[in-house]
Amino acid sequence: MNIYETDAAVSQYLLFHYGAPEERDPFQMLPNVAAFPSLCVQELPERGSLPANARALDLGCAVGRSTFELTRLCAEVIGLDSSAAFIRAAQALKETGIHPYTRMDEGALRTSLIARVPEQLDRTRVSFRVGDAMNVPADLGSFDLVVMANLIDRLPDPARCLQQLPALVRRGGQVVITSPCTWLEEFTPRDKWLGGFERNGRAFTTLDALKEILGRDFEFRFEQDVPFLIWEHRRKFQHSVAQASVWLRR
Fold this sequence. Notes:
CATH class: Alpha Beta
Number of helices: 8
CATH topology: Rossmann fold
Strand content: 25-35%
Number of strands: 11
């Protein structure tokens, strides 16, 4: 069974995307750090180069927080994810602004919570769609900004996904990619890993691969470390640091 189609995964990601600091980080392990999806939008795109009527694609949007956050920068935003369960939750948030869920605390103990889209974000400018990040539908058109947050190391063929970007991104447009570079064979066959191995006698990293694949069509702008915390239960968390990179379409 696809783990991203389960109620447990939907609840975990609703907390990750929308939980208040005290709900997702009660031990204050990452004090003063915003929710990861909003942090990616607040800190990474180069705002000054986006046109007034910019279009954005949130590729691998999960339950949609970064999709909504992108309305701060763009006139139209599309969120695409392969999980129908994630998209149903995101669509419910678009329609009503809220979505109830339960947080797993200990054993059979649960806490009832409500995910809320910040009131200042214009939900009418957002649309969601189930789709394959390695085969982005052509009818979506082109974009001034594409965000790929913690997506590439969960794809069967991440290079295939990246090779679509020149056609998806308008001249002068941007791509924001984040990844904790957690390459696992349960998600990506080893011969499709972008990095995390030796090549020609030296360490070859995910960023090396991104520069190789994107370098002809995109200018590498900068990289940044972005920490995040995913709740498993009250006393167990995934603490990771995503490597973010920003690219400008030549």
